[in-house]
Recover the amino acids of this structure.
């Protein structure tokens, strides 16, 4: 069978016919009249269709629809519970990341473990006593006196820093020294 | 009639009743496919239920590039193939199918006993001849002749070219014809 014959059988198959244009139908019919191979194949197709059409279509049990619909409703309500149980998984599904379920479950477990540790610490180990840092004396500052220069717009160069001289006692001159 | 895709969109937005409308519309076709693929009504019912549930769970993956029914057929075929692998439906098929046919036709037997018995036997033999075909050929025969699908739709569904569908169907018809000739039915 040439390619043309193949195309004709494909196009002229039982349910394709409504899709064909008038011109295509004419061409296919003309081919079927001329080509004996296609003619017998087409007849075979019609015969098979007639045999298979004679078998009654299976009728679904009447309770099947109700059974499926009930299960769909149950699945929907269960999915709300699933969100509460494993929000991470639901969020990952919602953003269509689709990681492996094992990874999602382990991530969720790690998240809950960390959350639990944080909550336990917050509940039982939250002391109100002052920290030991506050009990120690703050170190003495190295810079004690800062004088700004006399210029109107003081610049950093104009800042004079004097270091403290802790053991030096200023000598005050009194009139008795001169006596 | 409201198109299926509107109900799909509503389902994606979180309305399970929209999906139930799709169940109402298409369950008979999916059941028919499952029945032809699995060969017995019990497995066909379970597979249909499983297929719709599977479709509901993965409705987010529907890309709106094909018809919903085509997508649903694909889900149905996958579920039926899984079913066939894991269950011993082949064993149950003959006994259960016979029982089903007998139950269905029992009501007519009183009126035309000879005709009905002959027809039932003939139907069984045709169904058995279809069951004996390789699974790919059986699927193509079912989709083309019984589900009235076009070559293009079958090709899209089975992820192959229209030429492959045509040649597979051709082989299937020849095989079926030779089996039916042996039974003096063709």
């Amino acid at each position: 069978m040439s390619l043309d014959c193949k195309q004709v059988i494909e196009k002229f198959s039982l349910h394709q016919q409504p899709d064909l244009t008038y011109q295509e139908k004419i061409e296919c019919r003309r081919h079927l009249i001329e080509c004996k191979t296609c003619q017998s194949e087409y007849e075979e197709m019609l015969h098979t269709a007639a045999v298979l059409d004679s078998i009654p279509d299976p009728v679904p049990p009447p309770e099947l629809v109700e059974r499926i619909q009930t299960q769909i409703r149950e699945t929907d309500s269960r999915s709300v519970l699933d969100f509460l149980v494993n929000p991470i998984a639901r969020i990952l599904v919602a953003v269509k990341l689709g990681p492996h379920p094992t990874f999602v479950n382990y991530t969720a477990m790690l998240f809950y473990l960390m959350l639990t540790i944080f909550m336990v610490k917050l509940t039982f180990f939250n002391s109100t006593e002052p920290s030991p840092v506050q009990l120690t004396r703050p170190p003495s500052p190295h810079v004690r006196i800062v004088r700004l220069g006399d210029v109107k717009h003081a610049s950093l160069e104009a800042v004079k820093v004097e270091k403290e001289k802790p053991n030096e006692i200023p000598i005050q001159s009194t009139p008795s020294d001169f006596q | 009639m409201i198109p299926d895709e509107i109900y799909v969109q509503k389902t994606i937005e979180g309305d399970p009743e929209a999906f139930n409308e799709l169940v109402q519309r298409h369950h008979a076709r999916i059941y028919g496919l499952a029945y032809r693929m699995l060969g017995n009504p019990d497995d066909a019912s379970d597979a249909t239920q499983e297929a719709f549930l599977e479709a509901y769970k993965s409705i987010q993956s529907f890309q709106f590039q094909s018809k919903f029914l085509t997508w649903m057929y694909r889900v149905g075929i996958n579920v039926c193939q899984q079913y066939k692998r894991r269950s011993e439906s082949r064993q149950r098929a003959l006994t259960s199918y016979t029982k089903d046919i007998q139950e269905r036709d029992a009501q007519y037997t009183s009126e035309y006993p000879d005709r009905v018995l002959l027809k039932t036997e003939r139907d069984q033999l045709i169904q058995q001849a279809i069951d004996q075909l390789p699974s790919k050929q059986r699927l193509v025969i079912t989709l083309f002749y019984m589900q009235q699908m076009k070559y293009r739709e079958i090709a899209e569904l089975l992820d192959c070219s229209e030429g492959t569908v045509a040649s597979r169907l051709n082989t299937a018809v020849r095989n079926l014809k030779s089996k039916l000739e042996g039974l003096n039915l063709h």
Remarks:
- The longest strand of chain A covers residues 143-147.
- Chain A touches chain B at residues 6, 9-10, 13-16, 19, 41, 44-45, 47-49, 51-61, 64-65, 67-69, 71-73, 75-76, 93, 96 (CB under 8 Å).
